[in-house]
């Protein structure tokens, strides 16, 4: 009986982690729904939105739950990117917090993408969220997000006021 207790706790922890990752995937989908890309970003009205993740899926395969969902009439395609050359064609880039610095260095070497960057900081105490348009954060027991308007402007993205009212907004006075 004593051996079963740690296994049950591990299963409960895994289940809670899985639920949290499902919530983060849903939040990511909703964030994408309230962002507009510049004219000419898409070749036509039915072109897919490519949500890419950099090297490591921070949501442990929970992104599959939002694959093929529609965003403004466009299917959402999920794919992994391991090298800077693979960023072309991505509209959204999801980055695990431990890879943000590396991604930013590589992204600066390959500028020119209208890219919605989202970093998952929910398991981190790191407050340095530079270079990302959106940072997912843990607020006590809730998952929230920070939007950096300077970064969204740099990327040529328009963020809906309907999304901004639910976010902690940086760069609003700039």
Describe the structure.
The protein is an alpha/beta fold. It contains four helices and ten strands. The chain has an eight-stranded mixed sheet. It has a two-stranded antiparallel sheet with strand order 1-9. The termini are far apart. Residues about 5-10 have low confidence and may be disordered.
SSE inventory with pairings:
Elements: H1 4-33, E1 35-36, E2 49-54, E3 70-71, E4 74-81, E5 92-96, H2 100-109, E6 116-120, E7 134-139, E8 142-148, H3 149-154, E9 158-159, H4 161-164, E10 168-170
Parallel strand pairs: 2-4, 2-5, 5-6, 6-7, 8-10
Antiparallel strand pairs: 1-9, 3-4, 7-8
Features:
10 strands, 174 residues, 26% strand, two-stranded antiparallel sheet, 4 helices, eight-stranded mixed β-sheet, alpha/beta
Count of strand segments: 10
Helical amount among residues, as a percent range? 25-40%
How big is the Rg?
17 Å
| Helix/strand structural class | alpha/beta
Number of helices: 4
Strand content: 25-35%
Question: What is this structure, in a nutshell?
Answer:
This protein is of the alpha/beta class. The chain has 4 helices and 10 strands. The chain has helices at residues 4-33, 100-109, 149-154, 161-164, and strands at residues 35-36, 49-54, 70-71, 74-81, 92-96, 116-120, 134-139, 142-148, 158-159, 168-170.
């Amino acid at each position: 009986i004593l051996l079963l207790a740690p296994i049950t706790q591990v299963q409960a922890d895994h289940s809670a982690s899985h639920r949290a990752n499902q919530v983060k995937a849903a939040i990511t989908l909703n964030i994408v729904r309230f962002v507009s890309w510049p004219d000419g970003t898409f070749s036509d009205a039915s072109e897919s939105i490519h949500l890419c993740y950099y090297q490591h899926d921070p949501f442990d395969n929970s992104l599959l739950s939002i694959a093929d969902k529609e965003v403004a009439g466009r299917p959402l395609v999920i794919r992994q990117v391991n090298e800077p050359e693979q960023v072309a064609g991505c509209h959204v880039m999801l980055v695990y917090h431990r890879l943000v610095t590396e991604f930013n260095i590589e992204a600066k070497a390959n500028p020119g993408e209208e890219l919605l960057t989202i970093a998952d900081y929910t398991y981190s105490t790191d407050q340095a969220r530079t270079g990302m348009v959106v940072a997912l954060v843990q607020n006590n027991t809730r998952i929230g997000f920070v939007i950096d308007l300077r970064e969204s402007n740099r990327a040529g993205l328009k963020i809906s006021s309907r999304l901004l009212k639910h976010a902690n907004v940086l760069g609003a006075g700039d």
